[in-house]
Write a structure and sequence with these properties.
Elements (H helix, E strand, L loop, with lengths): L2 H27 L2 H22 L5 H21 L5 H15 L3 H5 L6 H9 L6 H11 L5 H8 L3 H18 L8 H23 L3 E2 L5 H17 L4 H14 L25 H16 L6 H14 L8 H14 L3 H15 L1 H14 L7 H12 L3 H14 L1 E2 H15 L14
Parallel strand pairs: 1-2
Helix pairs in contact: 1-2, 1-3, 1-6, 2-3, 3-4, 7-9, 7-10, 8-9, 10-11, 10-12, 11-12, 12-13, 12-14, 13-14, 14-15, 15-16, 16-17, 17-18, 18-19, 19-20
């Protein structure tokens, strides 16, 4: 295996295994910052060894074993002044081996999920909301600080500082590695739901790179959502979030063309939508409504997604209901992105001029400056209003703002279409909520 091939394989393995590795190590050493350092040490060891020896049959286990050995060495050095070295090594190795989860037992343990525990640690009340979300995206989603900064529309150094300070705060506070219960569970649940959905969104529409989607992130977020639903079955918003993710995930195969290019909502082949996921999503939405969660923000977004799922063709979509749901969502969870999505719904229900008025208000407000979907939506509406020159400029501006290569190509193709004064594209992809 060449060095380049080995590095590509290591990169792929790291994307798959890093969150599980950090979560498992954090349970063992009870320190998130130390766990990430140990995981990085194991990665460095893989970069040094695998180009010579090849990728092992079970790379995740190799990384964990390497990190565990480094953890034992570190803990041994820290306690040499109290006990003899050999005794410390024996005890530490036994403790770490005992901490390795038994897979069969884990299937029967409702809270036996290291990743879920890691989410709750990252969402601890000692951290600010921004730090909770940034740290969890870094540890759980394996996102770079740049990708997280893009999601939050803030400078990259700001996110880097939040993550460093968050890990230091958790270490200083000696936060226990466990899923909270009772009142503490309720207090932290909303932050956890937000984080899980942000991870899903990063997988659903990748902020950077050459792939339109990162399916592994969608799958991990959906898995965590289902675990949460089993852990707190009486919480309507948990079911609302699961419903939203199930329905959105049902479109995954139809969202990407044969060459990896994006396929927007109204152009998708609905025969490729996953009907099992849709049924699961509608069932989760019904459960949220039974529990009195019809007015929660996630359940409301799920109801919007359900309008699309129930429409057999784009023309059957109940845009008036979607616009009304966005009106209600703007009341309970106001944000500029919700307003942008509301503008799209208004344009589909009542004509592009209605949507453009709201978009122009957002432009004047400045709260979405630098957010590529704002000029993208504005370009779409201008094209539909027969103003191709203005639309082209908006699409070109949007292309300069996105860091996703597939999305950039799509925006530039739409700009070129406007330059040729061809009919405008029929649909705008909803923005991330």
């Amino acid at each position: 295996m060449s060095t380049a091939d080995a590095h590509r394989a290591i990169d792929a393995v790291w994307r798959i295994e890093s969150a599980k590795l950090i979560a498992g190590l954090a349970r063992m050493v009870r320190d998130v910052g130390l766990a990430e350092d140990l995981a990085q040490d194991a990665l460095v060891a893989a970069l040094e060894r695998w180009p010579r020896t090849g990728v092992p049959d079970n790379p995740g286990a190799w990384l964990m074993s390497t990190a565990k050995r480094r953890a034992v060495d570190l803990l041994r050095r820290r306690t040499l002044h109290e006990r003899k070295q050999d005794q410390v090594a024996i005890e530490m190795e036994a403790a770490l081996d005992a901490a390795v989860p038994d897979l069969d037992a884990g299937l029967d343990d409702p809270v036996g999920d290291d990743l879920l525990r890691l989410v709750f640690i990252s969402c601890h009340p000692v951290l600010s909301r921004e730090a909770r979300v940034a740290l969890t995206l870094r540890l759980l989603g394996g996102l770079t600080t740049g990708e997280i900064a893009r999601a939050f529309l803030v400078p990259e150094p700001t996110i880097a500082q939040r993550i460093v300070r968050a890990k230091r705060t958790l270490t200083a506070a000696r936060v226990p590695f466990e899923v909270p219960r009772g009142e503490e569970m309720q207090a932290r649940l909303s932050s956890v739901l937000e984080v899980v959905y942000l991870v899903f969104n990063e997988g659903y529409s990748a902020t950077a790179g050459d792939d339109w989607m990162r399916p592994a992130l969608c799958g991990e977020a959906l898995r965590l959502g289902r675990v949460l639903a089993g852990l707190v079955p009486g919480e309507p918003e948990v079911h609302g979030l699961v419903a939203l993710m199930e329905i959105q995930a049902s479109r995954a195969r139809a969202r990407v063309g044969p060459g990896g290019e994006p396929v927007l909502l109204l152009e998708q082949d609905r025969a490729r939508w996953d009907q099992l996921l849709i049924r699961r999503g509608l069932a989760a939405l019904a459960r949220a409504e039974e529990l009195g969660g019809a007015l929660g923000p996630y359940a409301m977004q799920a109801a919007i997604a359900a309008c699309h799922a129930r429409a057999r063709t784009p023309g059957e979509t109940d845009w008036a209901r979607i616009a009304a749901l966005y009106d209600a969502l703007a009341e309970i969870a106001p944000s500029p992105v919700v307003e942008l999505n509301r503008a799209v719904a208004l344009s589909m229900a009542f004509g592009p001029a209605a949507g453009l008025e709201l978009v122009d208000d957002l432009v004047a407000d400045g709260s979405l400056d630098g957010y590529h979907l704002l000029p993208s939506v504005r370009g779409d509406l201008l094209a539909k209003l027969g103003r191709p020159d203005e639309a082209r400029a908006e699409f070109e501006r949007a292309a300069t703002l996105t860091r996703n290569g597939r999305e950039r190509d799509l925006l530039l193709s739409r700009a070129a279409r406007c330059a040729r004064e061809l009919p405008p594209h029929p649909a705008t992809e909803p923005a991330k909520s």
